[in-house]
Amino acid sequence: MPQDRYFNYKKSQIENFLRLEFKKKFRSAGKISVRKRKKFIDIMTKKVSKQFGKDILFLINFSKQGFCAFVSPIHSVSTDKGKLKQSLSIPQVFYTSHCVDRFVERMKNHENCIIKLDDLLSEAILSFGENEGYLTCSDGVFVYELESDRLVVKTFLNFDLLSDDQIKQFYGSSMISVLPLEYTTENISGADFIIEDEKMYP
């Protein structure tokens, strides 16, 4: 298929790019520390996303024998909602293109944002049932729709976009543990509003 041929060409480009970057960074064949590996992966994630797109998953194999990369496109399907991108960790979850674009814009995340979305969604999925159509995590709220065989995430609202009433709704007594610490205060006099008022009983 033309799409497969295109991706194989793109895959070859990405692998060659990673090999060159690897050789520039690590000239010797010695062991590479975990700290250096993490730093290199972070840099490469940004560079690959910027040059080849945010819908690419790649893995880097650090070894004494050399370097190779596994590159895979994120699976997507076309629907009446537009193109949906499948989660890498939860096969039944799909993100709309609108959700991906808004996440990049609002979280200023220009890397492979599907991985970051999956990370936050794994936390947010614990709030399923608290507010129908919404899933709450420490960084904001996912807006979703359930279909027969999948959960479609339509958009992401980062915490700063939420009104006081929405914060009370999504971060009530059952979800208060995921409220970002920078938005809490130990002294009630320093609060703009109260989410939960605990009354002390004798």
Structure explained in plain terms:
The protein has 202 residues and is an alpha+beta fold. The protein has two domains: 72 residues; 108 residues, 2-Layer Sandwich (YaeB-like fold). It is built from five helices and eight strands; from the N terminus they run H-H-E-E-E-E-E-H-H-E-E-E-H. The protein is elongated and about 55 Å long. The model has no long low-confidence stretch (mean pLDDT 77).
Total helices: the number is 5
CATH class of the largest domain: Alpha Beta
Strand content: 15-25%
| Biggest sheet architecture | 6 strands, mixed
Tell the overall outline.
elongated
The name of the CATH architecture of the largest domain is: 2-Layer Sandwich
Strand order of the largest sheet: 3-4-5-8-7-6
Task: Give the low-confidence spans.
Answer: none
Write the layout of secondary structure elements.
Elements: H1 2-25, H2 34-52, E1 56-63, E2 66-73, E3 76-79, E4 82-86, E5 93-96, H3 97-107, H4 113-124, E6 134-137, E7 140-146, E8 151-158, H5 164-170
Parallel strand pairs: 5-8
Antiparallel strand pairs: 1-2, 3-4, 4-5, 6-7, 7-8
Helix pairs in contact: 1-2
